[in-house]
Amino acid sequence: MWPYPKIVAHRGGGALAPENTIAAMRCGLTHGFHAVEFDVMLARDGVPVVMHDTVFGRTVAGEGNVNEYTAQELATRDAGAWFGEEYIGEPIPTFEQVAAFCMQHHIWMNIEIKPVPGFEDQTGWTVAQATHRLFSGVLGRSPGALPLLSSFSFEALQAAQLAAPDIPRGWLVDDIPPDWHERLLALGAIALHTNHNNLTPLLARAIKDAGFGLFCYTVNEPARATEILSWGVDAFCTDRIDVIGPTFGSATAAMR
Ligand code: G3P
Ligand code: MG
């Protein structure tokens, strides 16, 4: 059984706040979410930071590669101004800062390892170790107490598995490949994370029947959310935290 929350705020606050910032985490919380997904890569000094794009330009003004700067330098970059005046000065946070916020407020984390190309091993290893350190006190307790690492990078997840085997992993894919089962077994993964647009009821059934969790990204239409939940999808992340609340689908599930 899926031990984690069902509805997860994508990049912290979905479409309502500047993604992957502490303000986004706060926004998700304000909307009643105790579950977030966010993206982690390494800064130049090897410190994990919460950021989606590997280059500046979209959410942080400027040009060039994020990993040419240290975490301290990145903390001076504005990750909020693009979104709105009230967010001016919102920094690129470290993973440690975001995790501390989440742990303080009892927010479950889906930590997406998003390596800069060429840094897959190092990123998977570092993020898994850091997570292990943060959660060493609850290892061996209920599985729901731990966060879930995920990544599109198979290599990063292999490194995470070596670094911290007891921190659960989900393999992220856009399109589910024919060898999904072997690949999940090779990673010791507990779940497959996939683009809901490429999921079918048959595939969902096969994944569930094989005993894996099934997580979808990024579901923004309530009707679609209801549909995939009826296929057996365990959880999904959403940008529309204003229309798909944290208890979405619970009444329907209880009636089944
Ligand atoms: O982890 C699910 C989802 O966040 C994957 O895509 O690009 O939004 O990080 P992306
Ligand atoms: Mg992500």
Describe the structure.
32% of the residues lie in helices and 17% in strands. The chain is an alpha/beta fold and 256 residues long. The protein has a single domain (7-255), classed as Phosphatidylinositol (PI) phosphodiesterase (TIM Barrel, Alpha-Beta Barrel), CATH 3.20.20. Strands 1-2-4-5-6-7-8-9 form an 8-stranded parallel beta barrel, surrounded by 6 helices. Helix 7 links the parallel strand 7 and strand 8 (213-217). It is globular, with a radius of gyration of 17 Å. The chain starts with 6 loop residues before the first strand and ends with a helix. Magnesium ion binds next to strand 2.
Task: Provide a concise account of the structure shown.
This protein is of the alpha/beta class and 256 residues long. It contains nine helices and nine strands. The structure holds SN-glycerol-3-phosphate and magnesium ion.
Task: Give keywords.
binds magnesium ion, globular, alpha/beta, TIM Barrel, 256 residues, binds SN-glycerol-3-phosphate, 9 strands, 8-stranded parallel beta barrel
Summarize the SSE layout with pairings.
Layout: E1 7-10, H1 22-30, E2 35-42, E3 48-50, H2 71-74, H3 95-104, E4 108-113, H4 120-135, E5 148-151, H5 154-163, E6 169-173, H6 180-187, E7 191-195, H7 201-209, E8 213-217, H8 222-230, E9 235-238, H9 250-255
Parallel strand pairs: 1-2, 1-9, 2-4, 4-5, 5-6, 6-7, 7-8, 8-9
Antiparallel strand pairs: 2-3
Bound molecules: SN-glycerol-3-phosphate and magnesium ion (MG).
Broad structural category = alpha/beta
State Rg: 17 Å
CATH topology: TIM Barrel
Count of discrete domains: 1
Mean pLDDT, all residues: 97
Q: Number of helix segments?
A: 9
Task: Give the total of beta strands.
Answer: 9
The succession of helices and strands, N to C, reads EHEEHHEHEHEHEHEHEH
Compute the separation of the termini in Å.
16 Å
Strand percentage lies at 15-25%
Label the overall shape: globular
Bound molecules: SN-glycerol-3-phosphate, magnesium ion
CATH fourth-tier homologous superfamily: Phosphatidylinositol (PI) phosphodiesterase
Query: Quick one: biggest sheet?
Result: 8 strands, parallel, barrel
